[in-house]
Amino acid sequence: xxxxxxxxxxxxxxxxxxxxxxxxxxxxxxxxxxxxxxxxxxxxxxxxxxxxxxxxxxxxxxxxxxxxxxxxxxxxxxxxxxxxxxxxxxxxxxxxxxxxxxxxxxxxxxxxxxxxxxxxxxxxxxxxxxxxxxxxxxxxxxxxxxxxxxxxxxxxxxxxxxxxxxxxxxxxxxxxxxxxxxxxxxxxxxxxxxxxxxxxxxxxxxxxxxxxxxxxxxxxxxxxxxxxxxxxxxxxxxxxxxxxxxxxxxxxxxxxxxxxxxxxxxxxxxxxxxxxxxx
Length: 279
Ligand SMILES: Cc1cc2nc3c(=O)[nH]c(=O)nc-3n(C[C@H](O)[C@H](O)[C@H](O)COP(=O)(O)OP(=O)(O)OC[C@H]3O[C@@H](n4cnc5c(N)ncnc54)[C@H](O)[C@@H]3O)c2cc1C
Prior knowledge:
21% of the residues lie in helices and 37% in strands. The protein is of the alpha+beta class. Flavin-adenine dinucleotide (FAD) binds at residues 31-37, 54-57, 61, 65-67, 126, 149-150, 181-183, 187, 207, 274, 276.
């Protein structure tokens, strides 16, 4: 539950194939209505391809996740048709400052050149981006099926067959092409033996979203070894609705449950400790 955001609840509708006990075939089925699945769905529709998008949940992502959108991401969001909303709601920033203990040791300014359409960076909570992507999917005629959990995928010589669980039981559909956008831990990629390429570093962070009206500049501040969190780093970002996001580095061996307990010295109003891998 957030003070500043009411999570939408998208309606589950029993799929026609399940009612008919038939197996329909679609050109493209996407699993996962996160940013990646919805971006792929919108791009398909912009090319005139019919899309079915399945998600096991019925809302946007919960809690504090992605924050910053750089120029290239904003260009892509422009192509998808959601960038105006993202820029209108988000916080623009250009200046980043880096501190070692209490001393500023580096800063940068991403001030856009005059002919740039968008600012250097936009900060916006991921749930807003997802809400705008859902609206855009609906506008473009993506068939969104909430509360549809893919439980297994079978390869066929000319496509795939998916078994799907809904509140009304299970059903199957077929697809010429399947896009697995079911998140970092993707059970579908695992099931199909597909790997993700990239560099990963392992760490744990306590993420605090502090709702605060403050006169601070909208800048990104990053500390190494600050006096208020010795031997670790801290990152501060201003987001929409006067939410200030603070990421406290904890180290890979930290115990998330311990860190969430009151009295650990973090000024967190709402915080959750999570394991984050940057790729
Ligand atoms: C605590 C936390 C903090 C983060 N902070 C940052 C950050 O500061 N900056 C940053 O860039 N990124 C951050 N991230 C990462 C960012 O949130 C992800 O990179 C992003 O959400 C990935 O998008 P996605 O669409 O690939 O997957 P997801 O957003 O994970 O979406 C996957 C979707 O698939 C659905 N799904 C999964 N399995 C099935 C199934 N079997 N059937 C049907 N549907 C299924 C899920 O319901 C979900 O909607 C953070 C993540 C977490 C958890």
